[in-house]
Design brief:
Layout: E1 16-18, H1 27-31, E2 36-38, E3 43-45, H2 52-64, E4 70-72, H3 79-83, E5 87-90, E6 93-95, E7 109-111, E8 121-123, H4 130-138, E9 144-146, H5 156-163, E10 167-170, E11 182-184, E12 190-191, E13 196-200, E14 209-213, E15 217-221, E16 225-227, E17 232-234, H6 244-252, E18 261-264, E19 270-271, H7 274-289
Parallel strand pairs: 8-9, 9-10, 10-11, 15-18
Antiparallel strand pairs: 1-4, 2-3, 5-6, 6-7, 7-8, 12-13, 13-14, 14-15, 16-17, 18-19
Helix pairs in contact: 6-7
The structure holds iron/sulfur cluster (SF4).
Length: about 290
């Protein structure tokens, strides 16, 4: 629970505030950019929400915040923000909210599919929170959990136990140590079913992987994201824990794939026609090669 006495002085006067426990994960700024901004190393309220839509998004940010750093002086009930998750991104793909501090606030996603198509997929792990778990139960549960890499596993074990779902993770990120049921090895793409292709992309970590759904949506973990500042796709040079050269090669190996959505764990999501996305990816590879 955010503490009023720890309210950051940068907050605009009014009900909503961010306290000094903010870890600068960016989630609130993505969810409610009209309310939250980066004042330099942390977030604060730039302008109090006014319309009901703005209040709704501010409450969603409050719920998503991994460190419970967002609060209201009036102790406003956040039920509306809780009920908004999972929140639809497009078609049957949802953002789970309830970001976990143990994954530095990484975003996780739920793909909702009929059982005869393989059932629902949880992409990386959110916080194991009762309201979210209940909503996922109502949406059909989880048939498979896919984990991009070791940093974003959060409460994977609790979700796996509750939903009795197998997990997919790469060997090189210590999958065996996490008790993972389906361990990916090597760098060859692996079809998980007719709609899902798991593509190992070592670089950010040794065992990082991305997931392509229906040749439409690419779940990218910490490998690839949209930069609103540069208005193109980027990788995180300053958050590359294994090898930038290897990550560059992994990025190049994504060029043959077609997709219209990039949904990352960190950084911004983006949608564009497949040809346009491909052009951004080409530019990203060239940019990475120039920063060796
Ligand atoms: S969601 Fe929470 S931790 Fe993340 S930037 Fe906003 S206030 Fe900070």
């Amino acid at each position: 629970m955010a503490q009023p006495e720890r309210r950051l002085p940068e907050n605009a006067d009014g009900d909503f505030f961010v306290d000094d426990t903010c870890i600068d994960c960016d989630a609130c700024r993505q969810i409610a950019p009209e309310t939250f901004h980066d004042h330099g190393g942390q977030s604060s309220v730039s302008r109090q929400p006014e319309t009901s839509a703005e209040v709704h998004r501010a409450l969603m940010a409050l719920v998503a915040c991994p460190t419970a750093s967002i609060g209201t002086a009036s102790r406003r009930n956040a039920r509306e923000g809780v009920a908004a998750f999972p929140s639809r991104v497009h078609s049957n793909v949802y953002y789970c909210g309830f970001n976990a501090e143990t994954s530095f606030g990484a975003w996780s996603y739920l793909v909702v599919r009929p059982r005869d198509l393989g059932g629902n997929i949880l992409v990386d792990s959110p916080r194991f929170s009762s309201p979210l778990v209940k909503r996922i139960e109502q949406m059909g549960g989880i048939s498979l959990m896919w984990l991009s890499h070791r940093d974003d596993v959060a409460d994977h074990a609790k979700f796996a136990a509750h939903f009795n779902c197998p997990r997919v993770m790469h060997e090189a990120d210590g999958a065996a140590g996490y008790g993972i049921e389906r361990i990916v090895t090597g760098e060859a793409p692996l079809a998980l079913d007719d709609e899902l292709v798991c593509v190992p992309t070592p670089g950010h970590t040794r065992g990082h992987q991305v997931l392509l759904y229906r040749n439409e949506t690419l779940f990218t973990g910490d490998h690839l994201a949209w930069s609103p500042e540069r208005r193109t796709l980027i990788a995180f040079r300053n958050a590359c824990w294994y090898s930038w050269a290897v990550q560059t090669r992994s990025m190049e190996r994504l060029l043959p794939y077609r997709f219209e959505w990039v949904l990352p764990g960190h950084g911004r999501m983006h949608q564009a026609p497949a040809d346009e996305m491909h052009a951004h990816l080409v530019r990203c590879v060239e940019w990475m090669k120039g920063r060796q």
